[in-house]
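Supplementary Methods S3. Complex input for the copper (II) ion-bound model.
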Amino acid sequence: MAELPSDPLQRPLPDGAVPEPVVVRTEEHWVTIMAVMLTAMMVIMVVTSVVGALHPASNVEVIDSRTLHLKGEFVESNLGTALEPDGSVTVRLIAQQYDFVPRCVVVPADTPVKFRLTSDDVVHGFLLPDTNINTMVVPGFVAEVRTRFARPGDYVMPCHEYCGLGHQAMWARVKVVPWDQFAGQGLLERTSCATQ
Ligand SMILES: [Cu+2]
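Predicted complex, serialized as structure tokens:
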């Protein structure tokens, strides 16, 4: 066995100890890998938000939640699906403990759909699985989200913001039907699909 130098600093490292240059190099590698991962995640978030037309924040549009049922856009006769002159549709809903009013709405497939919602009591959530629709519904504000359903089908819309003891039962439905079927329906049919 070779003789060890008398200066301890000159002696080789014991087995298992990693020399400093190796430690520094390894740390630099991991910092680089982390930076690349963070950048990739940021890019994915931004790209999916833009491509998927995600719009998490509602527009800042205020409304008096105490008079919703008396006057303005959200009176009972104005709720549900309305056809706009440009061929798109607007759906107006009120979220309240523990229901959406109306409970079911019919919208046409392959058509621009705008949902306008407000709450008359506490904060609720509005989510349509497998779409870009996901917003909070805050009393005093109108939440507006837009989408286009590619094909007919049924979408359940759960309230996904805890709003009280009956929250878990707060579900409603969006029924997407072919345009021809939609055009043949009257206003009442478009909002009475909850009983079908
Ligand atoms: Cu809820």
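The beta strands are 80-83, 89-96, 99-101, 104-108, 112-119, 124-127, 134-137, 143-148, 153-158, 171-177. Residues 124, 159, 161-163, 167, 170 surround copper (II) ion (CB under 6 Å).
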